[in-house]
Design goal:
The chain has 15 helices and 16 strands. Helix 6 packs across helix 8. Strands 1, 2, 6, 7, 10, 11, 12, 13 and 14 form a 9-stranded mixed sheet that branches. Strands 5-4-15 form a 3-stranded antiparallel sheet, with no helix packed on it. The protein folds into 3 domains: about 300 residues, no CATH class; about 110 residues, no CATH class; about 60 residues, Arc Repressor Mutant, subunit A. By secondary structure, it is α+β, with helices and mostly antiparallel strands. The model has no long low-confidence stretch (mean pLDDT about 90). Heterotrimer of A, B and C subunits.
Length: about 475
């Protein structure tokens, strides 16, 4: 249970959260027409006669959009409904040329499922399962632009008819952190499956945030819905602001109105958009132009067979290889990172050493360069070669850092750099002994102190030896030879 509470004048309040996530389906064509779906095209250049609702046009379902929604449902262990139906949701708005949206209210394609999130990446005991009510497929509306002209609004119908999956959670979340974890996990699953690119900045994934408050253990309160929130951070901010606003309102003797609100990120406030409509306000009825969807077993089997290894399964596999829970969660959070790391393992890297190196060294370098892992200047094959040189004692860990920097600059492989720059680690006891003898002779006072019981001086002798040998001495051999001479 979450211990997140809003402190009010009359005591503690609990927040109850549900999310309706609209995820744009990855498809080259719209849900019911062949019009293109590329982001950023000139306004009104990707509009077919169907999208513009010209008389006599008939919608035809896009098989790929249905397939992607089914695969998404399978990825969250949801009920797949072999029979589903499209409904018309009637409302009149300038960006909706038909005067209705084709959606699935009564018989959705995907029924109940669930997602398990970790509230603390290092602690399996922090897992929480959040229920999913349904996933239905619907078409997007166009876009109104109010800032292009002093007296008129412009309409861009490029998005009109684009396929969306609406993923409706149950009201199972109890804190901004839980909602953030859920949204991040859902986004990761969609991107692993390949059904949505998860790009919240471009609007291909956005959330409607349902928030209500109650005294712990009491009945649910009246909820508000804040529309079209387009980042995890903003979703969490909406919950904090809206929960506090509702508590203050109730404690002052007011009542929460069931309404639709908008979030202003600049001021970090929500404001009323319109009173909340119910299903009867939209006069839903079955779409007379579309037959019900009936899915065959062979189609469902093909969908299931096409699913990749999903984040939870991949994390468990990584942990079974000896990788820490934290590193495994970091490496599986983004599908590109997980794929790159799998390539590193396929190239022969030792899992635990490789995970530590990627999380510390590679991520550090990529952050510094402002690059993503797909643009990494060091390939997985070259990284495996570098780690192999450390593992077999050819170079030390500290020399590996130098080699890695040179790999980033030049694009060369690790072995070539080590050869060219003469960076091989030496395990030659003769050379190491000679340097140790010089250091012990030059620090006779410290040798006496060490032998008198000041054991911590051992590190000083190791450091001096490594420095004298320019970091190229094998640390294990240095330790062994020093002990032999000092003890």
């Amino acid at each position: 249970m979450s211990d997140y509470r809003i402190q009010g004048a009359t005591g503690d309040w609990e927040v109850v959260i549900g999310l309706e996530v609209h995820a744009q389906v990855v498809s080259n064509a719209k849900l019911f027409s062949g019009a293109a779906t590329a982001f950023g095209a000139e306004p009104n250049t990707q509009v077919s006669l169907v999208d513009a609702a010209m008389p006599g046009m008939l919608p035809v379902p896009n098989r790929e959009c249905i397939r992607q929604a089914v695969r998404t449902g399978m990825a969250i262990d949801a009920q797949i409904n072999k029979w589903s139906r499209f409904d018309r949701k009637n409302y009149f708005y300038a960006d909706l040329p038909q005067g209705y949206q084709i959606s699935q209210l009564y018989h959705p394609l995907v029924g109940e499922g669930q997602i398990t999130v970790l509230l603390d990446e290092k602690d399996e005991a922090s897992a929480k399962t959040i229920g999913i009510e349904r996933i239905h497929v619907e078409q997007d509306a166009g876009k109104l632009m109010h800032d292009q002209h002093p007296t008129m609004s412009y309409v861009d119908l490029n998005r009109s008819g684009v396929a969306l999956m609406e993923i409706v959670s149950k009201p199972d979340m109890r804190s901004p952190a839980e909602a953030g974890a859920y949204l991040r996990k859902l986004r990761a699953i969609l991107r692993y499956v390949g059904s949505c690119d998860g790009n919240m900045e471009e609007g291909s994934m956005r959330a409607d945030v349902n928030v209500s408050v109650r005294k712990p253990g009491e009945e649910f309160g009246t909820r508000t819905e804040t529309k079209n929130v387009n980042s995890v951070r903003f979703v969490m901010a909406v919950i904090e602001h809206e929960a506090r606003r509702q508590v203050d309102l109730i404690e002052e003797g007011g009542q929460v109105a069931q309404e639709t609100r908008l979030y202003d990120p600049d001021k970090n406030v929500t404001r009323t958009l319109r009173s909340k409509e119910d299903a009867h306000d939209y006069r839903y009825f079955p779409d007379p132009d579309l037959l019900p969807l009936e899915l065959e077993d062979s189609f469902l089997e093909e969908c299931r067979a096409s699913l990749p290894e999903l984040p939870d399964a991949k994390r468990k596999r990584f942990e079974a290889l000896g990788i820490t829970a934290y590193n495994a969660s970091v490496l599986t959070a983004e599908v590109e990172t997980a794929r790159w790391f799998d390539s590193l393992l396929d190239a022969g890297a030792e899992p635990k050493q490789a995970a530590n190196w990627v999380v510390a060294e590679l991520f550090g370098a990529l952050n510094r360069l402002g690059k993503s892992i797909e643009d990494s200047p060091v390939s997985a094959t070259h990284a495996a070669e570098l780690l192999g040189l450390v593992a077999d004692g050819t170079i030390s860990g500290s020399i590996a850092k130098t080699v890695f920097e040179k790999m980033i600059e030049s694009g060369d492989g690790a072995s070539a750099i080590v050869e060219r720059e003469g960076l091989k680690q030496t395990s030659d006891t003769g050379a190491i002994d000679a340097e140790i003898d010089k250091i012990l002779a030059a620090n006779a006072d410290k040798v006496a102190e060490y032998k008198g019981g000041k054991q911590q001086l051992f590190g000083f002798f190791v450091g001096q030896t490594m420095k004298a040998m320019q970091g190229k001495a094998n640390p294990g051999v240095v330790n062994e030879r020093l002990r032999a001479k000092l003890d």
